[in-house]
Amino acid sequence: MNSVLKTLRIVGFLEGVSYILLLGIAVPVKYALEDPTYVKLLGMPHGLLFVAYVVLAILVGIELKWNAKTMALVLLASLVPFGTFIADSKYFKPAS
After folding, report:
1. Closest-CA residue to 27 (of 36, 15, 14, 18)
2. For 32-53, what is the mean pLDDT?
3. Residue ranges making up the domain that contains 53
4. Is it the case that residue 94 has pLDDT exceeding 90?
5. Which of its termini does the chain have fewer beta carbons within 10 Å around, N or C?
6. How many domains does the chain have?
7. Whole-prediction pTM value?
8. How far apart are the first and last CA of the chain?
9. Which pLDDT belongs to residue 1?
10. In sequence order, what are the residues at sequence separation of 6 or more whose Cβ sits closer than 8 angstroms to the Cβ of residue 67?
């Protein structure tokens, strides 16, 4: 398996989990309990994982010669909850 693709799959999983935790736990706690602690704890790691996902997706896309539509869908997956898991099963796993 390509090491960059393997790294993308790991980062995609972690980015997806951090996004779900951020939206599903941290943000509701922030507004319901007026406690921004969890947003502060999860925000920076999620941001770093997001940037890493985008960079790795571009590198893998260039290496695998993805067309513009596939590249756009893989990048869009990082903005949609559970999107990175779908991208992994549809685009990353078959390529490995």
Report:
1. 36
2. 95
3. 3-95
4. no
5. N
6. 1
7. 0.91
8. 5
9. 53
10. none
